[in-house]
Amino acid sequence: MTVSKRLEQPKDKVSADKNVASYTKYHANSATKHTQEKPDANPTHEQQNTERSARKRQIKNTHKQQKKKQKAQQRSQPQQINA
């Protein structure tokens, strides 16, 4: 299609409406394709920070639980007094 054909106005109103409708339909679809949200390949700093703090919290909690278990075992064992 040449530029001169594209610039020609349709002779009747119906074909003009069809041209406008097809133009807007095509461009609306292409616009939505470009604006659709894509999953982040690179997470934001906030996401990284929350994930990091969650990992730290989990490690801290497991460490606390291990310490509690060790103390409980020490209490349950009779203490030997060396004199």
From TrEMBL:
<feature type="compositionally biased region" description="Low complexity">
    <location>
        <begin position="73"/>
        <end position="83"/>
    </location>
</feature>
<feature type="compositionally biased region" description="Basic and acidic residues">
    <location>
        <begin position="1"/>
        <end position="16"/>
    </location>
</feature>
<feature type="region of interest" description="Disordered">
    <location>
        <begin position="1"/>
        <end position="83"/>
    </location>
</feature>
<feature type="compositionally biased region" description="Basic residues">
    <location>
        <begin position="54"/>
        <end position="72"/>
    </location>
</feature>
<protein>
    <submittedName>
        <fullName>Uncharacterized protein</fullName>
    </submittedName>
</protein>
